[in-house]
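Dear colleague,

As promised, here are the two records you asked about, laid out in our usual form so they can be pasted straight into your sheet.

NAME FIELD: protein one
SEQUENCE, THEN STRUCTURE:
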Amino acid sequence: MDNTALARFITSLGTLNGYGSTVYQTKQALDLKSTKPLNNDPDDIAIFNDSLNGIAAIKKIGFSTDGIIAINKEFKSASDEQPNMPGHLRNANYNPDDRTAILISNDSKDAYFPPDVVTKSDLNLIVEKFNDSDKSEQDAWKVFVEISKLQPFQDGNKRTALIAANDAYGTLENEKYLILPINDLDRAEFTLMLMRYYSAKNETDLETAFSRMMKLLPNDSDRLQELSKPIEEEHNSDLSTRKIKRELRD
């Protein structure tokens, strides 16, 4: 089995949570069925293992509310990037840890507050909307943004959303995975547009943000080329003799 496409998908998925292992390291880990080639980082190991387990879980159940929950239930490795209660739908009325706010700028006053209580009915609406759609790639990305905005789980929501969107579109089976923008700058802008989607107050703003996100994603040809491109060992460029200036800051 050629793990090239899967390695690129896991690496793309991992960028949602600062996954630091390279595509080359990730493919080695898949080929060897061992996390030893990955960075010696518990978060990387957790993201790698739990992504594989989440993929397996929804492939077994299928795209459904229970399938989405099953993905997040697998995010149980020891890591700060994982929910304290995997698969638990947030209910802030009973659990203070479920009171979530998403900062959408460096200003702590600018935050998005998802619903305090999320039920299976909320996920059912997302599933039913996709099932009633043309089931296009755009419809699959709607699954991603809507689960991400709902923030149904304590943590791992965007990773859950991307795996679920891929299952909805059938790409977990045919390995033509939906991936995030390939270029770092496009990916940063994609994240900014997702924040705009979170903060949108009306349908027009939602569609504007979503449209801008779609334009940043690789087209079918570029995506398939990226997924099948041979993976070579990556070497960092030598910056040791340079004065580094950061334009992108936390």
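NAME FIELD: protein two
SEQUENCE, THEN STRUCTURE:
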Amino acid sequence: MDPMTASLEMTASLEVRGLAYAYPDGHQALFGVDLTVGRGERVALLGPNGAGKTTLVLHLNGILAGGVGSVSVAGLPVAKANLAEIRRRVGIVFQDPDDQLFMPTVREDVAFGPASSGLRGAELEARVASALTQVGMAEYAERPPHHLSFGQRRRVAVATVLAMEPEILVLDEPSSNLDPASRRELADVLRSLDVTVLMVTHDLPYALELCPRAVVLSEGVIAADGLTRELLADDDLMRAHRLELPFGFNPRAVA
């Protein structure tokens, strides 16, 4: 093992080893995935529809289980006995923020997770204030979520996860349906966070902007793992795995 790989594994937020999974109907979604993500890394998970990305993500906090192989988060195995702690450590931000926001006010939505874990009083309020400040939404704490713009709701959804102080932040298509200003605001938030980020996206320029490293998942296996810029500039790789850059976009030309 080379020194760089050894260093990454010693500080890993996420380790996936030999993960294979078939759904009850017999469809094999993963065929033996190996993936290590170091603490503090921002990694884009790329691949065509049906590649197994969602199946992989749902194994990270135990929503799916029963396959072959192993998953651990900060050294803690994803297993039934550890699920409460694993689900605190792995926060998933869904594509539609309305799937996560259901309380009367923004503050109550952000407080829901830590309050359910037993946090109360001043400590709870401090946790909520910190999470909202991190996403630039502190002034909206008493607003009903449905009065916010879509981009603001997405940032509040991120805050609901940050309030749990996760080890890993998993984002499902974070830039989808955002206008250019909201897209930029979310990018600024994500760059500022001191957490490990795994970003599932078809938005390849956004992946390049935010994630120095990318992993291509295709037909249930890791097809490529490397610097995002280099993977996106590999025409043969992109074509083979049905990944498309916007017309005229040159990843090598992006500073």
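A couple of things worth noting about protein two: Residues 7 and 186 are 30 Å apart (CA to CA). The chain has one domain: 3-243.

Best,
R.
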